[in-house]
Amino acid sequence: MFQALINVLVKCKSFSELKQIHALVITFGLRHESPISSKLLSLAALSGAGNIDYGYRLFSTLPAPRVFDWNTVIRGYSISKNPNKSFSVFIKMLRAGVFPDYLTYPFLAKASARLLKPELGGLIHGHALKNGFQLDKFINNSLIHMYASCHDIVYASRVFDEMPMKNIVSWNAMLDGYAKCGDMASARQVFDLMPQRDVVSWSCLIDGYVKNGDHKEALAIFEEMLVLGPKANEVTMVSVLCACAHLGALDQGRSMHCYVMDNGLPMTLVLRTSLVDMYAKCGAIEEALYVFRGVSNGKTDVLLWNAMIGGLAIHGLVNESLELFTEMQIAGIVPDEITYLCLLSACAHGGLVKEAWYFFECLGKHGMTPKSEHYACMVDVLARAGQK
DNA sequence: GCATTTCCGG
C-alpha cells in the first residue's frame, strides 16, 4: 500500500494531482505515516508540482517532523522568493530540539547567499563549527560559495585554505567567486592551478570573461575547451552565445547553435532565450523568430518573449514588436518592467509618442515603478518626436 | 531518502 502510493507520488506532475493525492492520504488515514508524508512534503515543497507555502502548511500538520522534513522546508524556502523564511524555520527547528545535520547548513548557506547577507552566513558558519562540522566538505563548499557570492572573497579563501581535503567543487567555488568579484586574473590563476577541471570549471571561467566584458577571451577559452576540455553543456553555451551576441558574431553564433544540435544538448528555455537574443542582436531576425517559435506548445516565459520583442524593437520592426506583445498577453504571460522597456524602445524607434505614454502608464498600473531606464526611454521618445 | 559549483531578457 505504502509503496503503491509512493509510486503514484513520484509520477505526480501537477498541483491538482498533488492535491488529489494529499486528499487520498488524509482519507486513508496515512497522514502520520512518515515515509508517505515526507515524500508528499518534498514533492510539495521542492518540485514544480507544488509550492513552498503549500509545503509549509503540510509540514505544520506533521506530528513529529524529522530532520529530513525540516531540511526539506528550509531548502524549499532557500530557493523561494523569500529565503529569509529558511532562517525562521531553522530557529523553530532548534527550538523543537531537532539537531541540524550535514545538509541543513548547505541549504542555509544558499539562503544567505541569495539574500546577499554574509553576516547571516557567518552565523551559520559558526553554528556548523560549534556542532563539529568543521571538516565537512559539503558544508565548507557551500560556505565558500556563500561568502564569494556575497563578495566576501577574503572569507571565502580563508575557508578554502583551511580545508584539509578539497575537491573539484571547492576549486570551482573559488574560481567562480573570483570571477563574480570581477577578479579575472585570480580566477584564471585558480583555473590554472586546480588539479583537474570539469565542465563547470570551464563554464565558470568562460562566463567570468563574458560578465567582465572580455567577450573575445571568452570565445578563445571556449575554442580551447573544444580541444582540451570536456564536452560543453547547455550552460556553457548560454555564456558563449552571450559573447557572440555582444560581438555581433553571427557566423560564430550559428556554429554554436550547430554545436548544441550536433551534441544533442537539452534545449532549455534559458538556452532558447540566449539563441533568440544572439540571432536578434546579430541582425538575423528570421532565425531569431525561427528559434522563438521553435516547438509549438513549448514552455515559454517572460524572458523569452522579452528577448524577441526587444530584438524586433532594436531593428526598427516596431509593429511586429507591438503585435508580439499582444500575442504574449493572449498567451497569458505577464509582462515585467523589462517588457515595458522593450516596448518603449520600440516606440522610440517608430516615433510613437501616444503609445509610449500608454505603456509608460501601464507600468504604474501593474504595480511597477518606472526606473531611470524607463525615463531615459521616454525622454528619447519625446526628443525624437521633436517635443521639449 | 534531501547534497554544495556554471546559464537567459534592458
UniProtKB/TrEMBL annotation:
Pfam families (alphabetical): PPR, PPR_2
InterPro entries: PPR_At4g14850-like_plant (IPR046960), PPR_rpt (IPR002885), TPR-like_helical_dom_sf (IPR011990)
PPR repeats: 66-100, 167-197, 198-232, 301-335, 336-370
Biological process per Gene Ontology, one example term: RNA modification
Keyword flag Repeat: yes
Coiled-coil residue windows: none
GO molecular function, one term: RNA binding
Keyword Repeat: yes
Entry protein name: Pentacotripeptide-repeat region of PRORP domain-containing protein
